[in-house]
Amino acid sequence: MITLKRSRATRSFFFLGNRQRELLTKIVSYAVLSVGAFTMLVPFFWMLSTSFKEPAGIFKMPPEWIPDPFTLENYVKIWQKTDLARGFANSMVIAVVSTVGEVFVSTLAGYSFARIRFPGRNVVFAMLLSTMMIPGVVTMIPAFTLFRYLDWIDSWKPLIVPLMFGSSFAIFLCRQFFATLPEELADAGKIDGANQFQIYWSIYLPQARPVIATLAVLGFIARWNDYLGPLIYVRSAEKYPIALMLTTLNTMYEKQWTLLMAGSVIALIPIIVLFVSLQRYFVGSIALTGIKG
Amino acid sequence: MNRLFQRKRELTLNQRDALWGYLFVSLPIIGFVVFAAGPLVVSVILSFAEWDLLRDPKWVAFDNWRQLLTLTVKEVPQEIDDATGEPLFLCARQKVPASQVAEIEGTIDTRTGGVVTCEPRYMPERDVLPSGYRTALSFDLLGKHYLIGSRDPLFWESLYNTLYMLLAIPISLVIALGLAIALNQKIHGKSIYRMLYYLPVVLPIAATSLIWMWIFNPNFGILNYGLGLLGLPADINWLQDRHTVKPALMVMSIWGGLGYQMLIYLAGLQNIPNHLYEAAKIDGAGLLAQFRYVTWPSLTPTTFFLLITGMIAGFQGFAQPYIMTNGGPYNSSRTVVMVIWSNAFRDLQMGYASAQAWTLGVLIMLVTALNFVMARRWVHLEG
Hints:
Chain A has 293 residues and is mostly helical. In chain A, 73% of the residues lie in helices and 0% in strands. In chain B, 62% of the residues lie in helices and 9% in strands. Chain B contains 16 helices and 8 strands. Classes of the chains: A mainly alpha (293), B mainly alpha (383).
């Protein structure tokens, strides 16, 4: 009986009118997406709610989603009594300096590969692209010995300087972008006798704002989130970026989850602000990385 | 005369442009040599040397590679009872000869109160493996018990852990595809859903790892609480139990990677030409048939791309287990990069760690190369 009923029900789905079927599909889609989104968000609710609890509040069962009493004490404490604020500032400096360098050098190289003819151009470009295939784990050890030889260990130089030479992915994106711009753009500059740097700087670069924004956002986030790099190169705690500082606090304040969750919120804030305000550049970049494969 | 002069000037202009061109790419070229090609060559050389950074590197030829890669597979016989000559079993921590197993199995253990179960008692590894070798992995096949012995068992165990945790990728892809299909319908709030799912992808792993440690907390974590509400076992010590630690880490990495996969799938779905669906409908294909014969085949390149990029990242997993479990319990969540990291930067075995890094690197490059080969095949298919 039951099986008969069920088969009638499934069959009847395909006999529904187009309108009804579309409506049903929509309802199912909303349901799937909402359940999924809720599951994705639970960790964030959990972090936020814990960060506003008093230390004893986390032992309450069932757990409170809206803390009572509600306190900002954890934020004050982790910002003033620990080195998290210093880590925050360190990360800002590292991320901004390295990203500015990376983007500038990469746009320059991308422009050159797309818009200037010089012998060996394609060979050099292919050579640079090939580095994207090298897994980081293989170059990790020799890079360390190089930086040790240069006496750069326990400084930010190993985290910043390599990016001053551009990155293959950024160069690739810039080249693809500049190649879409018309060649005639440069004519006015050439007639005025401008050199290639002037043409790049005053004609092409202003057009490249979307690519620059995308690369800046991706670069900043990658540097802010980097964990293994600072773990290898930075030794003294006062030079730690925020990611490393946070996990150091995890060992210092073990099990003090209200404090640690407040620290996590602080570490997430810059990324969430960037992400929400510059969302359209993310979507663009995702499409680009998707093509790359 | 005039014309000649002009041509000459044109030539020099082009040459001057070319010089600018070289100048603009000079930094990336230097970077390529110093930070990519150079280290690549050096790491190959290092893998044949012994170097602790303090003394000069010593050439050891293939010693590192031999120690790392030599494996031996041995069948492990059951231990024999000296008195009776029967194979031994282990029942409630007691050695029991085979003939008595039937009596004891199923009785109640007076100490623990549980039912006694018996397992074959195998010879210890030191009697089976050659000296210097320890158990990397053990497995049962066709009723026999085997050991894989290695002189570096930790590397192989960590490789097993890493491969095990790669299983999160196909699971994640199934969920991501389902979500992408739902998001591809005519619905409102697409950009909000997109943002919510994508958010974990961009967040610092140090912070999200702390959040998940707290979620997995055995006593006050939200996961065990939720399981309790559903009437499921709610006392699981997720990160401290060797049976649950890998699945727990996989759950977190699925959460962290789902948004990216979903968006790539969404782009793939939007690239499927509508006339394919129209044609399928005319042939009387239902929704399932449309998925089977239009959607899924059209998405094969996307699926493959996600699989490969996921594997490349997964092979190099480090921060998440490093922060959450430090490889424990009993190395059951230690990844290959964690082993390489501690060999190189803790124990200062630069040469040996380089050999380990290259072993992993070759695996990753094989996967990447596979991607290129398959991509080329699809292009041919389409053409």
